Amino acid sequence: MISGKVSDLKRYYPVNPAFEFIAKFLDEYKAQPKDSGEYEILPGRLKAIVATNELGDAETKKFEAHKKYADVQVIVKGTERIDWTDLGNCGAMVSEEYSTGGDIAFYEDPEFSSAVTLYEGEFMVMFPEDAHKPCVKPCENAEPATKIVFKVLL
User: Which domain holds residue 7?
Assistant: First the structure.
């Protein structure tokens, strides 16, 4: 897991070349915001999903993980909490889409996890070993958050 400010994305270019394309997309988004939806950046290798999400209580969400793609989640408006733990700490798998061609599985909550609150202009990267629970309210009266989730083929 990596977390930081969008302004520092360039230091992660050596991690994966997709980070440079992500930074370019974010610059374009800042100049001209895009509607909610899915945008292919590098077909089959990198896409962006723009969405405004209602945030919920942690108890109503499930931890998720992906095998083929890393998630780069960027908050462009509002605040969101994402719970995180190593996949090996999770409880039993409760559902999966790997067997039907999808790239997500959901798990029972682990005994312990960390919470990362992301503010506007911050990002978090989750790799296949990073189980995460997105769209959690950081406080009781939290407004919906707008974010861009980049799916990076590994």
Answer: 2-153
Q: What are phi and psi of 131, to 5 degrees?
A: -75, 140
- Predicted confidence band of residue 137 (pLDDT cuts 50, 70, 90): very high
**What secondary structure, in 3-state letters, does the chain show?**
CEEEEHHHHHHHCCCCCHHHHHHHHHHHHHHCCCCCEEEEEECCCEEEEEEEECCECHHHCCEEECCCEEEEEEEEECEEEEEEEEHHHCCCEEEECHHHCCCCEEECCCCCCEEEEEECCEEEEECCCEEEEEEECCCCCCCCEEEEEEEEEC
What CATH code is carried by the domain that includes residue 69?
A: 2.60.120.370
pLDDT digits (tens, 9 = 90+) for 3-57: 999 999 999 999 999 999 999 999 999 999 999 999 999 999 999 999 999 999 9
